[in-house]
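Morning!

As promised:
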Amino acid sequence: MRFFLFCALALAATAQPRHGVRPSRMVIKNATVVEGNGTPAQSPVDIVVENGLIAGVGRVQPQASDVVLDAKGKYVIPGMVNMHGHLHDERGGAPMDFNYVMRLWLACGITTVRDVGSPLTKTLQTREKSAKGEIAAPRLFVYPMLGRVRDAAAARRRVREVKAAGADGLKIVGAWRDTLAATAEEARALDLPIAIHIGVEEANANHAIAAGVRTIEHWYGIPDAALKEGVQNFPSNYNYMNEADRFRFAGRLWREADPKLLAGVLDRMVAAKVAWNPTLDIYEASRDLQRAQTQPQFKDYLHPVLEDFFRPNLENHGSYFVNWSSTDETFWKENYRHWFRAVRDFASRGGLVTMGDDAGYIYQMYGYGFIRNLELHQEAGFHSIKIIEQATLNGARALGQESKFGRVRAGWSADLVVVNGNPLEDFKTLYPGRGIEWTIKAGIPYSNTELMREVKAIVDNAREKK
Ligand SMILES: [Zn+2]
């Protein structure tokens, strides 16, 4: 009897977190914490998690009934905010289990995703299930895609439909100046923030800023608004609809931007509080195709449907690598150098820089592409402490949620990533199977090992069927 009691107490004192099960109270002991607000790491710190929230940050003696996560020698950062995700359930028309996408995001430490275009009804249902903790998924903000509409009246109608469906915001792709202005005005009245993907078109970044968008995605519209001639120096046989043309010459756009005009565009963005979500990972194949095609995680984790979709084929968006040359790569490497500098200039002027993976295109896998962004922001010259802030709290800021999640602070949602390694030294520790041990979303711990085992099972199953 005495022996039994001793065992029970010992077990209770060392109750471990369980994959996908929200404990009533959990204490993360002896962590090294990066808060996510741009301040350096602190250690040792204990974090109390209760009812999905961070109840306290400091030094705590766990109670016998607490679940205890020993984080001695480990880093804890806020759950990351992916500001440009697509919750795909197919690629090129072939179905793909979207649990694959959600588990990869969680395994990469992503606890919030702003979805900017996916099957609307399904994604809204997933948002609710995720909010209730019924499924393993990041918290979702749903910004359905608004493609080109014929006129202002149609634009307004479409905004009202999207609002009635329950969207959190709006993603604009392709707009004329008049339809953009009408869309933005209607969206403002209905309190729907706008993420805009600006292609090479009539409305550039200056028009988007004036219309009052919340974030500019990717980049093209920004240098495009800084061209002295008002148009890039395209060859006469250029066809924008041909993706090989489009992406080849996009690689020669930044070099044509006039530095003074560009500074003006960046200043206007800062003044209007327009955040920049550059998604640096998603064009990287353009500067180094072989690197993109031979990423080590493809062996075990690349879904065969995604694999097919990535193959060069002008029918599939982003699979434009037809006769891709060293000359193209060289232009793109230079393009990236200008782009890096512009993002840094924007941030140093006070602009809000966020991060998003845009995965499911151009050899980028969900989550992995997001972590690659942290590396690329480092290459751009940002300090790793600021990069963690860009990947966490800045996303929450751009979503207007900075008092709810995105930092390790009492009262904020318990969105936390426990890393066996120092991400401030090496962002590669954040890739699945490397350093992340637990991703905690709203107090629910998810084991990296379990998540990746599930991902592998989905991939193996799909490969067998093929
Ligand atoms: Zn996208």
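The domain at 80-398 is CATH 3.20.20.140 (TIM Barrel).

Hope this helps with the figure draft.
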